[in-house]
Amino acid sequence: MDNTTRYERLLDRYREGGLPRRTFLGLIGASAAAYGVMGGPFSGFARAQDVKQVRFDGWGGVVSEAFREHAFNPYTEKTGITVVDGTFGGADEYLARIKAGQPGEFNLAHLSGVFDYARYHHQGLSSVLNEENIPNLANVIPALQDVFRKITDGTLSAVPYNYGTTGLAYNRKHISDEEIAEKGANILIDQAYKGKIGGWSDWKTRIWYAALQTGQDPNKIEDMEAVWDAIRTSRDTVLKFWASGAELMSLLAEEEIYVTEGWSGRIRALQDQGHDIGYFDPPGGLGWQECIFVLKGSPMGACEELVNFMLEPEVAIAVAEGQFYPPALDPNKVDLGKIVPSLPAFDPAGTLASLNFFEPEYWNSHEAEWAKQYGRVEAGY
Amino acid sequence: MDGRASAMRPWLLLSPALATVTLLLVVPVMFILVYSFWLRTATGADTSGFHLDNWIEVLTDPFYRDILFKTLRIALVTTLFCIVLGYVPAYFIAMSRTGNKTLLLLLLILPFWISYIIRTMSWINILGASGGLNSLLLTLGIISEPMRLLYNEGSVILGLVHFLLPFMVLNVYVSLEAIDRNLLDAARSLGASDLQAFREVTLPLSMPGLAAGALLCFVLSAGTYITPVVLGGPRDAMFANLVFDAIITQLDWPLGSALSIVLLVVLGSVVLVYNRLVGVGQIAKSFG
User: Is A287 helix (H, G, I), strand (E, B) or coil?
Assistant: First the structure.
């Protein structure tokens, strides 16, 4: 019997009333003393007892609500470990906070894309997950895991959790399905809609779409000047570069804009609210996956348990239905129910072969230069 | 010995305030200053040392200079609007002889009870394509399609004026309230009209409050970050937005630190000039 099992049995006996509180605490205290004096078999007790809470940071909004309702509250009920639920506006802002904080202050984060995984790893923030503690990882689409393993020498610092696309969202009152299919990414710089176009104020997405608009492979751009010119055209054509999902939804719902790139799940949420908003992934459109990243210095046992809990099919599916993004679970291994297959970007094959992702090494190698230049171009240069 | 103790006493009495200012202002600014001489490497890590690269870039690149001038221009226009729009209600409240003065002052500070971001975002519901103003004008048949009122420099200035107007009104009100009414009566008894009495007595005596309000409005608007983000378009970034981009988006803390120091020095210079001409003590009077 391993230490964790011993501890769980002890905890179960205490919860079921078979062990007085004083005895339980005494045993835990003895284990802590044993750990302090000589380490050994009860050392895990002491560490487990230290973990009263873990901190999770995510995107807020409906995503956080779904996590709280379907994952964190049941997890706390089961383990007694509180999940402190924080939010961030983006991986950039979150990285700045981690940099300013103490090791171990931040534990788990719902990060976006392979790009961020690589970036956080290069910043020395990655951990090594003990996959034996995450049996539900076996249900996760292998293609989503493989891209992470390539970056961290075969190990994982995160588990893939969901995926989606950043496609074209358009108001059907003003733009037909045929028009969007015909114009594709170029509709975002179509002068006919000047002042009625939006876009995400994210340098990577802007460059990706500008590459498509200039007929280039976003993961192998050859004419960067053409890309910057396309972004300048976009800047002078849009009404607003939005900065959050809430702003995206507001701009579309209030008809401030007729077309923009949008996140598949947010657009589905708008559709469910009754807005006649279409969604189209243009050729070369952008796919992404999100992961639950465990940061270096976190209590790994508690984090791995939470991650495994979050990957339980019923939890992952409930979260997916709440946030409108397909879960990373392999549809060939798990029955995903009726709603998930209807979500935008869902891949019934479970290979994600039709989606295009940021090539992490390529984008990371240009990050410093392009992020800075984008800031200038967006501000009018 | 007594003399030395007497000489030390003011410093002892001041020491809590000095310690607070040192810990909360001087030390953080020193950290930022030191950071501005570091460098960001390609991996995102910072290299310590004494490098002038960030300062050369910030001081020679026209991009930063232009955005700084634009920021100061927007702050100046905002301040002028606040002066014009703030004086009238301040005068009305100060000269009111009814018992409702307390209520009027309460109404003046009521917006402070609502989050600045929420107040700023409220303009989207007023000025948006399907917002209150456009809907009203469309219903009345004055316009045939919604006007574009949001996401431009005008909406940024409007949001700033909305945010800063109470600061101006309070400052002017305090100055007006302190004016001896007998001076006005004296001016009138000497043949001055109401307008002349205002121009020759009230206005000059309220100038310190006006100047204090103007300083606050100028400094706060020049350092704003939220308003351009919420109400501005792509070209409406202000200097604080550049600091945000450098520190958060680009994770370039050294460059962001240099930009922060530039803004601090520019706005600090404005305060110094003001202090030379008017004296910063006037601001304290506004807060009682």
Answer: strand
What's the token pair of residue A226?
Answer: 């053409």
- Check if the beta carbon of residue A290 is closer than 8 Å to that of residue A57: no
Contact (CB, 8 A) for B104 and B93: yes
Q: Look at residue B53 and tell me if it is in a domain.
A: no
Domains of chain A in start order, with CATH, are 3-48 (no CATH), 49-163+289-342 (3.40.190.10), 164-287+359-378 (3.40.190.10)
Tell which residue, B223, B257, B270, B226, has the closest CA to residue B71.
B223
Which DSSP helix (H) or strand (E) runs through A159?
Answer: strand A158-171
Q: How confident is the model over B47-59, as a mean pLDDT?
A: 95
With residues binned 3-state (H G I as helix, E B as strand, rest as coil), the percentages for chain A, rounded to 5, are 50, 15, 30
Question: To 5 degrees, how large is the angle CA A129–CA A131–CA A136?
Answer: 120
- List residues of A whose CB lies inside 8 A of any B CB: 92-93, 95-96, 99, 119, 122-123, 195, 203, 235-236, 238-241, 243, 250, 254-256, 367-368, 371-372, 375-376, 378-381
pLDDT digit string (tens) for A267-321?
999 999 999 999 999 999 899 999 999 999 999 999 999 999 899 998 899 889 8
Residues with Cβ within 8 Å of B97's Cβ and at least 6 positions away in sequence, in order, are: none
Interface confidence, given as ipTM, is 0.83
Q: Is A241 helix (H, G, I), strand (E, B) or coil?
A: strand
User: pLDDT digit string (tens) for A19-69?
Assistant: 554 444 444 444 433 333 333 333 333 344 468 899 999 987 767 887 888
